[in-house]
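4.2 Preliminary Data

To establish feasibility before requesting continued support, the project team ran the inverse folding procedure on a target of 466 residues. The structure was first converted into the token representation described in Section 3, and no sequence information of any kind was made available to the design step. The complete token record follows.
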């Protein structure tokens, strides 16, 4: 008897009896994959009543007591901040990232720290128990209540978890776990979707926090159906380049906290170490008193971070000049270069312009506009920018400098790093009420900002001559 198959959309999970070029539900193209049809899947049930979801009747919102989530501290401040203060009991957390970026290393480290106060079950479908032991010895993870279990059968994993009753369970990775009564292969859309559903129900019913590791595609997205990210409570992405030692843990979804927080780590021989002052890390080795280098303060969630923006202008050897941007939105960079050409009269048509944010960090904050424009103009005109000057401001199409948000927090971060001057939008001057040692210079447009930087350079020369 021929086994029936269905076609499932990789993006939304929509099922179709035949292949379609375009998904009729989410509109994505060439996203259908053929899978074996799933019939009569027995849903996971427990003897306990599912009190997390059940309700006798609808209640008025005023009658519902919100209460507070019980959180488990991981022993890592960077991760706790990203999660919103710790791991919420009964939550399902998805961790994604490129191969070798440090996902398993981070989870094994926090497992050891949590196991010193509670119990952790580390389930691996990609490594044997002996391989995990070798890595644990290198990381110094030898807590008594850290249990390691190498298995890929979901029913066996849930049976062990029910018996051991851990506080936290880690599944590494979700693409290797399968349910035996589903005909699809491990890692298929059907298996990933159903396994995640069972884990979610198990986490809610037993108040066990579960971390699941997800593989990523060549585009950087988590493999499997897009609905996988909708099912979980929190989605964390581990970013960074394997050639660099620094890693950034970013949250893109969090039902129990902010979605804009980041955690910064450094990969060492002994594992991942926290970087509690990322501004110092990003500014380390910065050249002083050079052209084309500016410092800006961007906000990552509630954390102000200082970063260096570098620009290089070089005469183009071809008919069309090039524009390249690393760490900055390309369209925004082209727009800012156009403002320099039109409003300030700089002839950049025959110049190749390269922009880079040092340290591998990506900036989407419009408060960096003025710093980018000043960096390009500085390198093109070859004038020096004071290394102890912070530049803040959003730039409009007529070269006016508009107000930015959280100006006081940005200035306070610059003060801690020893900066002396700060260019801020004129409209922000009234909102800055805290006293600071930094001299604030309000500016209204880009031309005025460049003149102020020239005055700062003269003051520096006078200080050196004295």
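Position-by-position output of the design step:
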């Amino acid at each position: 008897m021929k086994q029936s198959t269905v076609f499932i959309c990789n993006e939304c999970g929509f099922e179709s009896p035949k292949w379609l070029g375009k998904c009729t539900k989410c509109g994505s193209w060439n996203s259908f994959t053929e899978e074996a049809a799933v019939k009569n899947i027995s849903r996971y049930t427990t003897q306990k009543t599912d009190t997390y979801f059940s309700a006798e009747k609808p209640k008025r919102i005023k009658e519902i007591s919100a209460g507070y989530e019980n959180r488990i501290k991981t022993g890592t401040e960077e991760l706790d901040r990203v999660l919103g203060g710790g791991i919420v009991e009964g939550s399902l957390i998805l961790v994604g990232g490129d191969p070798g970026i440090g996902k398993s290393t981070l989870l094994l480290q926090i497992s050891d720290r949590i196991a010193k106060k509670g119990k952790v079950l580390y389930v691996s479908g990609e490594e044997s128990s002996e391989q995990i032991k070798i890595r644990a010895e290198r990381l110094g993870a030898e807590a008594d209540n850290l249990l390691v279990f190498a298995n890929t059968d979901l029913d066996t994993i849930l049976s062990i978890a029910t018996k051991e009753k851990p506080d936290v369970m880690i599944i590494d990775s979700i693409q290797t776990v399968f349910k035996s009564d589903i005909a699809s292969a491990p890692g298929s859309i059907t298996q990933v979707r159903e396994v995640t559903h069972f884990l979610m129900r198990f986490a809610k019913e037993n108040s066990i926090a579960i971390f699941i590791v997800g593989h990523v595609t060549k585009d950087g997205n988590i493999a499997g159906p897009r609905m996988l990210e909708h099912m979980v409570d929190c989605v964390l992405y581990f970013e960074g380049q394997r050639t660099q030692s620094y890693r950034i843990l970013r949250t893109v979804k969090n039902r129990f906290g902010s979605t804009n927080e980041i955690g910064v780590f450094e990969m060492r021989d002994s594992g991942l170490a926290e970087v509690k002052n990322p501004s110092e890390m990003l500014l380390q080795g910065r050249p002083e008193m050079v052209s084309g280098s500016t410092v800006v303060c961007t906000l990552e969630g509630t954390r102000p971070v200082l970063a260096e923006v570098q620009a290089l202008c070089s005469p183009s050897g071809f008919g069309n000049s090039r524009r390249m941007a690393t760490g900055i939105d390309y369209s925004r960079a082209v727009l800012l270069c156009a403002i320099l050409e039109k409003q300030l009269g700089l002839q950049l048509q025959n110049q190749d312009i390269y922009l880079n944010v040092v340290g591998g960090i990506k900036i989407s904050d419009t408060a960096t506009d003025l710093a980018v424009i000043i960096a390009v103009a500085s390198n093109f005109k070859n004038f020096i920018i004071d290394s102890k000057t912070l530049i803040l401001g959003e730039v409009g199409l007529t070269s006016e400098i508009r107000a930015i948000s959280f100006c006081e927090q940005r200035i306070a971060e610059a003060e801690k790093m020893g900066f002396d001057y700060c260019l801020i939008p004129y409209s922000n001057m009234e909102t800055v009420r805290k006293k600071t040692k930094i001299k604030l210079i309000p500016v209204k447009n880009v031309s005025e900002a460049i003149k102020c930087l020239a005055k700062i350079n003269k003051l520096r020369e006078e200080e050196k001559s004295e």
